[in-house]
Recover the amino acids of this structure.
């Protein structure tokens, strides 16, 4: 059900329309759609803007398209690709490379295969080449069925995570291990039918924060807490975290039935202006790849 949001909403001004897939945030049964990515506005560097691109890669079985996506990778990426034992991991790896390369190329006049990346100290990849102005910041996440790329020009510290909602896990055990006391208390207070969704929400939000910081698991997961029983998603840091909660903004996107996505950004306190777009990298109608 790919349909241009531009078409559904009438022709809102954006120089580079992109096709989108309905991805919704749900709160007590209310669905709010995010606006579509507008590349020109993102490149203006306006504070708060974070674009979220997503690719349901398992829906694609066009061998020529998949081969073209694979051909975008560097020799190093090919080596990493071959090291994966399972076909689904290899497919997810290619999908992630194809996504980030084709998405970045929408924001700068650089061919998708030309981008080079370098990991930071704890593994967070960034653009290493070419130098583009303005600089583009991104973060990636992948899981079975869905890969996502959050991107911003305005904010360097952005993070994204995606998890499947339909997984079977011992949520209370995991929460006891990784969540803060207040998160565990709030989770246990919920009716059991609501716990899995709340658990995945907190998990993805925590990951989006640690990925935005780029410090990996050096950050103690139980020393910051997400507050979900209020109008805006809030975060509270223990003193040991030496971070300022007023700077951070988060969003949760529920692409039911299978996935939940969290985006986090240090916007310096500006409201998060999240835009979304679906993409099938290199699919050839000019709107998609
Ligand atoms: C690597 C990590 C950042 C996320 O790992 P993950 O959940 O397995 O994977 P995700 O899909 O969220 O993200 C993977 C992508 O993040 C990016 N990434 C890697 N290291 C990163 C870092 N330190 N910071 C930000 N992004 C990073 C990479 O692009 C990676 O994809 P790639 O290897 O295909 O390029 C790390 O934080 C981790 O191991 N987290 C899981 C630990 C955990 O216990 N979490 C509990 C939360 S309550």
């Amino acid at each position: 059900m790919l349909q241009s949001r531009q078409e559904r909403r009438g022709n809102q001004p954006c120089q580079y329309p992109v096709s989108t897939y309905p991805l919704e945030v749900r709160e007590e049964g209310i669905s709010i759609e995010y606006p579509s990515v507008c590349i020109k506005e993102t490149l203006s560097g306006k504070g708060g803007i974070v674009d979220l691109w997503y690719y349901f890669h398992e829906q694609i079985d066009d061998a020529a398209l998949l081969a073209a996506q694979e051909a975008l990778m560097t020799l190093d990426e090919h080596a990493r690709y071959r090291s994966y034992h399972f076909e689904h991991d290899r497919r997810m790896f290619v999908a992630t490379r194809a996504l980030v390369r084709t998405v970045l190329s929408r924001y700068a006049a650089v061919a998708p295969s030309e981008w080079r990346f370098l990991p930071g100290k704890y593994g967070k990849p960034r653009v290493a080449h070419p130098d583009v102005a303005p600089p583009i910041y991104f973060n990636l996440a992948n899981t079975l069925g869905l890969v996502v790329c959050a991107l911003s020009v305005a904010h360097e510290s952005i993070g994204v995570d995606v998890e499947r909602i339909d997984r079977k896990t011992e949520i209370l055990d995991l929460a006891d291990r990784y969540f803060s006391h207040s998160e565990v208390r709030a989770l246990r207070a919920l009716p059991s039918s609501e716990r899995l969704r709340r658990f995945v929400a907190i998990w993805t939000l925590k990951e989006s924060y640690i990925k935005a910081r780029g410090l990996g698991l050096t950050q103690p997961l139980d020393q910051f807490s997400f507050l979900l029983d209020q109008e805006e998603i809030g975060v509270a840091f223990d003193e040991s975290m030496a971070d300022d909660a007023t700077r951070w903004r988060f969003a949760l996107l529920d692409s039911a039935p299978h996935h939940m996505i969290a985006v986090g950004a240090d916007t310096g306190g500006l409201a998060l202006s999240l835009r979304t777009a679906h993409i099938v990298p290199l699919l050839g109608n000019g709107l998609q790849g």
